[in-house]
Each structure stands twice: as C-alpha cells, then as structure tokens.
Write a structure and sequence with these properties.
40% of the residues lie in helices and 12% in strands. With 131 residues, the protein is α/β, with parallel strands linked by helices. It has a single domain (19-125), classed as Rossmann fold (3-Layer(aba) Sandwich), CATH 3.40.50.300. Strand 2 (53-58), helix 2 (70-79) and strand 3 form a beta-alpha-beta unit. The mean pLDDT is 84.
Length: 131
C-alpha cells in the first residue's frame, strides 16, 4: 500500500492489513520530499523504529541535481536507527535489485524468515554499513 504522507486516514482502519515495514521514499532532487518524510515520522509509533522502518533514497544517479544534503539523510537513518537504501529507479537492474532487497526486508519484518528478527536485521544493516 502506498501513501503520500502520514497519518493514514482513519476511516478505513478496520480494512487495513497489519503494517510490517514502512519504507519512506526520499527523492534526492526534492527538498519537499525530505520535509514530507520528516513531518510523517512524527506519526509513526516508536516501536516501528526497532527494525521496521527504512529510508529509500531515489535519484542518486544525478548528484549534480541534488536538492537534499546527504548528511541530512544519513542523520535520519542514525537518529531513527533505520537503514538507508540508495537507488536509481531509472536503471532497471538497480530497480530490480532494490525491489528484491525491500522484499527480503519485508519478509524479515513480517516474521517469515526463521531465526532473524526485524531488530537483529536492523543491527546487521548498521554493522555492514560501518565496514
């Protein structure tokens, strides 16, 4: 399910499936995109930041057109203890690889991968980024 911002409208709460992963998309070419994500973060329950949130940064192939500071994006990941994924949606190979990575994260967050929890997955993502 996609939403342009949070909070989600409450009138369909009873029909909404369980939320296992929230992927915030940030278009590196749009300051509005980052501001929208920052405003939406206030509506996410704190328990989701224990491995069930990630930030997906798009447009990274066009560094010359950046409107968003990379430090601001890294800080979001750090402050919210959530992985930051970078991709270029216009390149099919990268788009497919990113979709597969998000699907694997979703499987883990939904509890469909035995022996791996969303919390341990999040710490694995952070430790691999440090190397």
């Amino acid at each position: 399910h996609l939403a342009t911002s949070l909070p989600l409208p409450s009138e369909r709460d009873h029909l909404r499936p369980r939320i296992d992963l929230i992927a915030f998309m940030i278009d590196i070419k749009s300051k509005y995109s980052l501001k929208n994500v920052e405003a939406s973060l206030a509506h996410v329950d704190a328990s989701f930041f224990l491995g069930k949130v990630c930030f997906l940064v798009t447009g990274v192939g066009r560094v010359n057109y950046c409107s968003v500071e990379m430090n601001a994006i890294w800080k979001l990941g750090e402050v919210y203890c959530s992985p930051v994924l970078f991709c270029e949606l216009e390149l099919e190979g990268i788009r497919v690889a990113t979709a597969q990575r998000l699907l694997r994260m979703l499987q883990i967050c939904a509890g469909h991968v035995p022996g791996v929890s969303a919390l341990s997955f999040s710490s694995l993502m952070r430790s691999s980024a440090d190397e």
